[in-house]
Amino acid sequence: MRVHISGIGGTFMAGVALLARAAGHRVTGSDQGLYPPMSTQLAEAGIDVFDGYSADNLAHRPDQVVLGNALSRGNAEVEAVLDAGLPYTSGPQWLAENVLTGRHVLAVAGTHGKTTTASMLAWILEHAGLKPGFLIGGIPGNFGVSARLGEGECFVVEADEYDTAFFDKRSKFVHYRPRTLVLNNLEFDHADIFDNLAAIQRQCHHLVRTVPGRGRIIHNAAEPAIDEVLAMGCWTPCEPFGNDAGWQAVPHRDAATNFDVHHAGQPVGTVRWDQTGAHNRMNALAAVAAAGHAGVSPAAACAALAEFTGVKRRMEERGAVGGVTVYDDFAHHPTAIATTLEGLRTSHPDGRILAVLEPRSNTMRLGIHRDRLAASLAAADAVFVYTADLAWDAAEALAGLGDHALLTDDMNTLVAAIVAAARPGDRVVVMSNGGFGGIHERLLNGLADR
Fold it and tell me: Which residues form the Mur ligase C-terminal domain (predicted)?
């Protein structure tokens, strides 16, 4: 079958493309403004991608078109599909019908940590010899790709709450019918499609309704918003993690990153790794508990996590020049920004942290979280914010940071200021959910040239 994927460059849709290719279909795609790592992944898979959207991209008359949720009516390719009467579907629906049917689906949902937790879970299952399939909104270091069909019964999917397509406004995750569901956390986000937190909770309730009575829901005990979702109705056994819940992480005093895993008050395993931050301990707890429902013992899961190598764009070290280390991180919500910086501060208490932020998400551009932004950046010694295309006054919102912050809407000015400020021992954390104009390479080149 000839499958054409419109909007192929998104993290989810690129994964769909890999799965379709692995299933034996002839795959093409289209997008605009592609950037690594997904552009690289598609190229390495030999998938032809048209630059931009056009009716001409459909001249080969594909048997099915998979439309990404970034496309809407008025898009040239969408209009061509409708006018020509070509069969079309959404990415989540394609995944459900062509990959997930008959498999043990383990879905990871929540505002933060979905990609990392799903990557940990997939690696635990792989380490245990279960050969899982997966589709993750990032590239786990242990696998090198964001999606694969797998040979075993298990399939791990990052369960995004964003809407499905212009013709299906339900959250993506309602298509997946998981047997094991992780609910990591829940905050207001995606202000472009949700009016408030309650609207997201309603979608999460719809997800909970799809989990069978013989399934399992793993949920964060420290999240009142999740408790409220479960109170709407739950027909599945639940296992809480965090705080004084059934699954707990007990940090070691002599090693900042290592911790013991306790279940029902008893030690069941030890994680020795180099991942930083309390948020990653919670991600790991969720992954260990979810893997248990697939038959992996806690001790085996903890041993697997010792070999977990992280995820691209999640505190990924991009390089070091002259004693200055540059990291790439996907953080784009105040909570994620704060946890990223606090985790780095805990693991590297002696060096300076230079935080570089592009408030690029729709929610950030609209200014929904502007009043929380300054506090989320407080752990940094210096802050650099790219202010292009914002609908709010960044100078006013970040005034509390004083002269620790530099704000500019010019990329050249931003790069030059960071290079000038950096000194040996510093850690530069670049946070954005986009390509950020290739700033990581520009910083490393600038540091090398000075």
Answer: 313-434
* pLDDT less than 70: residues of the chain: 191
Q: Annotation-wise, does 252 bind a ligand?
A: no
**Residue with the two structure tokens 């992780």:** 182
Rounded to an integer, what distance in angstroms lies between the CA atom of residue 85 and that of residue 88?
9
**Residue 115 annotated as binding site:** yes
CA distance 316 to 322: 18
Buried b (16+ CB within 10 A) or exposed e, 251-290: eeeeebbbbebbbeeeebbbbebebbbebbbbbbbbbbbb
Which pTM was predicted? 0.82
CATH 3.40.1190.10 matches 102-305: yes
C-alpha to C-alpha distances, 374 to 41, 339, 398, 404, nearest whole angstrom: 35, 14, 5, 11
Q: Is 276 annotated as a binding residue?
A: no
User: What pLDDT was estimated at residue 287?
Assistant: 98
164 known member of a binding site: no
Q: Can you give the pLDDT at residue 337?
A: 87
pLDDT tens digits, 134-150: 999 989 999 999 999 99
